[in-house]
Specification:
Number of strands of chain B: 5
Structural class of chain B: alpha+beta
Structural class of chain A: alpha/beta
Order of helices and strands of chain A: HHHHHEHEHEHEHEHEEHHHEHEHEHHHH
CATH architecture of chain B: 3-Layer(aba) Sandwich
Order of helices and strands of chain B: EHHEEEHEH
CATH architecture of one domain in chain A: 3-Layer(aba) Sandwich
Largest sheet of chain B: 5 strands, mixed
Strand content of chain A: 5-15%
Largest interface: A-B, 13 and 14 residues
Shape of chain B: globular
Number of helices of chain B: 4
CATH class of one domain in chain A: Alpha Beta
Radius of gyration of chain A: 23 Å
Oligomer: heterodimer
CATH class of chain B: Alpha Beta
Chain lengths: 495, 180
């Protein structure tokens, strides 16, 4: 398990394996700029600790033999109960679903079960390592889904050779699930798979690299604009990187009223625009990027990042991590009180203290050890809790935007400042609200199989999202989960 | 995919009237247009390169393009049109058409109008532009005596194939290739 033994009473999770190593303090309470240089040195050291963490991860993976298991959720008083949970009694349950397929959401765990599906073609920063090697990551994600969202998630890496085959697999497994979480699929094929799966399947389909990152970014930006007295209508935004996350971020910004002409995307070849030399190639190979190229960058700005940021209000950097991609002079060239999100991991495109020294009014990164972490994990547990509770038939952008807006409001309720743009992962009271907002959006969109009031959704989300931490703690207290080994495991096994 | 046909024309034009509201103006090319057409021609050839290694663009393609365009301007059997923007883009060359009328010594009709290139910059595609350009080109070829109009494009260019198929074109000759 990734959860450190002593911490179960105050559930804390950051992305992936860093959870147990993350600092216990609340970053926003600390004075900002002055201490950032110190933070930076510390975090550089932490980056170098990744190898150490990796070794520990391998040992623990071996000790526990993975991270999740299935556990019955009904009493088994004696073997006689099997005739209720299995044959002959269960036949009547099957008949009921056969007569009314949606009854599966009442009579089975489908209401709360999703599949985490990957083809292993872009796993973390490791690239195309295949479905077998992707499994530990999917298990980790399943753990996060359960722990943070109360969602039963099945890790399901699949061996497929084409997007069509991928889609056929999704069609084939959909009857067992209330939702699908796509994970770690190479861009641009991830766009086509999500788009087509969303059309075909009668359940919500999500891809964190597109929707999760974009929703968290948009939530942070909503608050950053408010703090600096801006609105989407009159803001000029530069997105550095034109991968899965930023292409969706651009789409969501436009849906929120951002003038597409005042958005510019920049990639390795410079500003993306309708007359760039590679635009016909994009039309063939990446029509999603092609469409954004045609819509954005009004006025036809050309050139590199420096040309793009001239006078811009916002810079959203979600690029392939190349440290120093964003320079202080880029920030200085922006409008007054500029907003800079440097989201590359583990090393941001520009360090927060450097960005602030160059005049940035608000800085966010992808890291948990700086203020304002833009993190998928702020979004996906709540979104899935919500769409599952509404038994939604889909995941349209309005649901994603409802979650993003609620996340932004959550930070506001806790006290919105330049150092507290988004809730932290510890501020768990926000997440049931995100769930309820997503569920409400499903009801409004007419795609909810189950209509409940806002308060019902909220109460339900609180209960379901709160339970797993207690469950894990109880398993731990009763030694049904082996205690976390302190030192080297020397090949020992928990079971 | 809701793309645009590779040779530059839209995949889904809807204009049915004879004078569709298109964001371009089409006129015969002049000597002075050559400099503006060359980069568009190179874009089209580089797009074709995406479809097949046997369509690799030569290093001297730019000089070749200038030469070919000059020859065609002087050829009474050739059709060379430029598309200009409208409004703020009034004097900007945003696309071109290159076509010619060829003799068919053994077949009827005797004269074939061949569309070699149609290219429009992305922002000037769709909205019925392709339909409009195709019709204007066909008319120009017919005026030069063509009794049939054909279009040449890379075999792998499905977008172009779909565009022409939708407008009543069918494959009559296939060109198969093998490296030597």
């Amino acid at each position: 398990m990734l959860i450190a033994a002593g911490r179960l009473e105050t559930p804390f999770m950051a992305e992936g394996t860093l959870a147990s190593e993350a600092p216990a303090r609340t970053p926003r309470r600390r004075a900002a700029a002055g201490r950032d240089a110190k933070d930076r040195a510390a975090s550089e050291k932490r980056t170098s600790q990744t190898e150490e963490l990796g070794q520990r991860s391998v040992e623990l993976a071996e000790f526990y033999g993975g991270k999740v298991e299935t556990v019955p959720k009904v009493p088994v008083r004696s073997l006689h109960d099997f005739s209720l949970w299995y044959t002959p009694g269960i036949a009547a349950v099957s008949r009921a679903i056969h007569a009314d397929p949606d009854r599966a959401f009442d009579l089975t765990g489908r209401w709360n079960t999703i599949a985490i599906v990957t083809d292993g073609t872009r796993v973390l920063g490791l690239g195309d390592i295949g479905p077998r090697a992707a499994l530990p990551v999917m298990e980790g994600k399943a753990l996060l889904f359960k722990f943070l969202g109360g969602v039963d998630a099945i890790p399901l890496p699949i061996q497929v050779d084409s997007p069509d085959e991928f889609l056929r697999v999704l069609d084939a497994i959909a009857p067992a699930f209330g939702g699908i979480n796509l994970e770690d699929i190479a861009s641009p094929k991830c766009f086509g798979i999500l788009e087509e799966a969303s059309k075909r399947l009668p359940i919500p389909v999500w891809h964190d690299d597109q929707l999760g990152t974009a929703a968290a970014t948009v939530a942070g930006l909503i608050n950053a604009l408010e703090l600096t007295g801006r609105s989407f209508r009159d803001t000029r935004t530069v997105l550095l990187g034109a991968g899965a996350a930023n292409l969706v971020t651009a789409r969501l910004l436009i849906a929120l009223g951002h003038d597409p002409h005042r958005i510019s995307l920049v990639d390795q070849k410079g500003i993306l625009h309708a007359e760039r030399n590679d635009v016909d190639e994009l039309m063939l190979r990446n029509p999603w990027k092609y469409r954004v190229a045609l819509k954005t960058n009004g006025g036809g700005r050309t050139g590199d990042l420096a040309a793009a940021v001239e006078g811009a209000d916002v810079l959203l950097a979600a690029s392939t991590p190349v440290p120093g991609t964003v320079q202080p002079e880029h920030v200085r060239a922006m409008a007054r009180d500029p907003i800079v999100f440097a989201l590359a991991n583990p090393v941001p495109e520009i360090w927060p203290d450097v960005a602030r020294a160059a005049g940035a009014a608000i800085v966010a990164t992808g890291r948990s050890d700086f203020p304002n972490q833009v993190n998928n994990s702020l979004v996906f547990p709540g979104v899935f809790r919500g769409v599952l509770d509404a038994r939604s038939r889909g995941m349209p952008d309005e649901v994603v935007l409802a979650a993003a807006r609620e996340l932004a409001r959550g930070a506001g309720r806790l006290g919105l400042t330049a150092q507290h743009l988004l809730p932290t992962m510890e501020e768990t009271e926000v997440f049931p609200h995100v769930a309820a907002a997503a569920a409400d959006a499903c009801v409004r969109a007419g795609i909810a199989r189950k209509r409940r009031t806002h308060d019902e959704f909220l109460e339900r989300a609180r209960t379901l999202m709160g339970r797993p931490a207690r469950l894990v703690a109880a398993l731990h207290r009763s030694h049904l989960t082996a205690p976390m080994p302190r030192g080297p495991t020397r090949g020992r096994k928990a079971t | 995919m809701t793309g645009t046909k590779a040779d530059g024309a839209p995949a889904t034009p809807s204009a049915k009237s004879d004078t569709p509201q298109v964001p371009i103006h089409l006129r015969p090319a002049r000597e002075t247009d050559v400099a503006a057409i060359v980069p568009l021609l190179l874009r089209l050839k580089r797009l074709n390169e995406e479809f097949d290694p046997l369509l690799k663009v030569r290093d001297d393609a730019e000089a070749q393009a200038r030469q070919v365009l000059k020859v065609q301007l002087a050829d009474p059997k050739a059709v060379l049109l430029v598309a200009e923007g409208v409004g703020a883009d009034k004097d900007k060359v945003v696309g071109y058409v290159r076509a010619l009328v060829r003799e068919r010594p053994f077949y009827l009709p005797e004269q074939e109008g061949v569309i070699l290139d149609i290219y429009l910059l992305p922002l000037y595609r769709r909205h019925g532009v392709g339909e409009f350009v195709l019709r204007a080109t066909s008319d120009a070829l017919k005026a030069k005596g063509a009794g049939v109009v054909t279009a040449e494009f890379p075999a792998q260019n499905e977008i172009a194939a779909k565009f022409y198929a939708k407008r009543g074109f069918r494959a009559i000759t296939l060109i198969h290739a093998r490296s030597l």
